[in-house]
Amino acid sequence: MEAEFWLERWRDGRTHFHQTRVTPLLQKYWPTLGLPKDSRVLVPLAGKSLDMLWLAEQGHHVLGAELSQLAVEQFFSENNLQPAIHDSAYGSHYVTGNIEIICGDIFKLDAAILSTCSGVYDRAALVALPTAMRAQYAQHVYGQLADDYRGILITLDYPQDQMDGPPFSVQDAEVQSIYSAHSDASIIDRRDILDKEPKFLERGVSRLDTVVYKLQRRA
Q1: 76: alpha, beta or left, given left = phi > 0 and alpha = psi -120 to 50?
Q2: Is 148 helix (H, G, I), strand (E, B) or coil?
Q3: CA gap 47, 198 in Å, rounded
Q4: Which residues are CB-contacts of 174 (< 8 A; sequence separation ≥ 6)?
Q5: Torsion angle defined by CA atoms of residues 167, 171, 175 and 176, in that order, rounded to the nearest 10 degrees
Q6: Model confidence over 126-161: pLDDT tens digits?
Q7: Are 88 and 105 in contact (CB under 8 A)?
């Protein structure tokens, strides 16, 4: 998926994937990870997700990674936050309180920064990437997180031949395959959400499940 695709979506306001509330599945399952309050939590392809605010309210140090400067600026302005901004080799850093968002390519983040993250929350990243990029993404990001990291991954499972992504369908067999080198991925919730997603119905999708995984470093 070309970076320009997502930048154009944000410029055109075609961001129906953005939720105007905190994700209930995050609130339900995040406490089961048992992460210390001061843990640094990575939120890849963060957009302007309100989930970052919720994670920060739990006492975590949130590190978002987002390609679109427009999305980053909207996150801070819509939540009445005034970030301090500085640049590095990773991109532009927007920082306020215990929330930091790096505006740049997540593939430019390296072990020096990823290894400081002992938590990860992925609702938007894996399902946004086409098949050819998902294994690379999982290895690059999750393979370099802290040795004792724990996290929540949320995917979608639907007949991919019925609709072109993104968001893409990522079946469990693929999740197990691309994470197996470094992480254990255990399904902790699966539910049918088709009746809550009219845009999928309109495009002819006959089945739509959301699947929640608990992730942790493989021993």
Answers
A1: alpha
A2: coil
A3: 22
A4: 131, 134
A5: 180
A6: 999 989 999 999 999 999 999 999 999 999 999 999
A7: no
What gap in Å lies between CA 196 and CA 125, rounded to an integer? 21
Looking at the predicted structure, is the pLDDT value of residue 17 above 70?
Answer: no
d(CA 123, CA 154): 5
pLDDT in tens, 21-61: 999 999 999 999 999 999 999 999 999 999 999 999 999 99
pTM of the model: 0.93
- Distance from C-alpha of 172 to C-alpha of 157, rounded to nearest angstrom: 8
Strand order through the sheet with 61-66? 84-88, 91-96, 99-103, 61-66, 40-44, 119-122, 150-157, 209-217, 183-192
Burial class for 122, CB neighbours closer than 10 Å (0-12, 13-18, 19+): buried
Q: Is the peptide bond before 166 cis (omega within 30 degrees of 0)?
A: yes
Which tens digit of pLDDT belongs to each residue from 195-204? 999 989 999 9
pLDDT at site 158: 96
Using the CB atoms, write b or e for 128-146: b if 16+ within 10 Å.
bbeeeebeebbebbbebbb
